[in-house]
Specification:
The protein is an all-alpha fold. Helices cover 69% and strands 0% of the residues. The relative contact order is 0.11.
């Protein structure tokens, strides 16, 4: 039931019900075997829960399972920046993947997509400016 619980919790969270807590994402992260979307849901939840190591693992799995869903790369970059120690080179690489594939983000809101892309561009520029590659 972990994957069904994950899908239901993510749907409710996406619709504004608030973050459901980390337990549902933690429980599902290892169960995901074939769905890049479910791995993305788990990774996004783990990132929000500040479980960066598990978020990195889940988001890498999301990209491996479905490399055509590159919104995962944006969140993977975020997790790489927040983990200890941060992996700046991995963050830049994932932001660049996200930026190079706008048709594969699967974001229904163009303004939200532009905002994420602007954020990714700014973070890459800042990391490069600081020499953190």
């Amino acid at each position: 039931h972990a994957l069904l619980d994950l899908a239901v919790a993510h749907y409710a969270w996406d619709r504004g019900d608030g973050f459901p807590g980390s337990a549902v994402f933690t429980a599902a992260a290892d169960e995901v075997q074939t769905s890049g979307t479910l791995a993305f849901y788990a990774g996004r939840g783990l990132l929000t829960a500040e479980d960066y190591e598990r978020a990195v693992d889940a988001l890498k799995k999301a990209l491996a399972l479905d490399e055509s869903f590159t919104l995962s790369a944006y969140f993977l970059a975020e997790a790489e920046l927040r983990r200890e120690p941060p992996r700046f080179d991995q963050a830049i690489r994932n932001y660049e993947l996200f930026l190079s594939t706008p048709d594969q983000h699967r974001i229904g809101n163009p303004a939200a997509q532009r905002q994420l892309m602007d954020d990714a561009r700014a973070k890459v520029a800042e990391l490069r400016r600081r020499g953190l590659q």
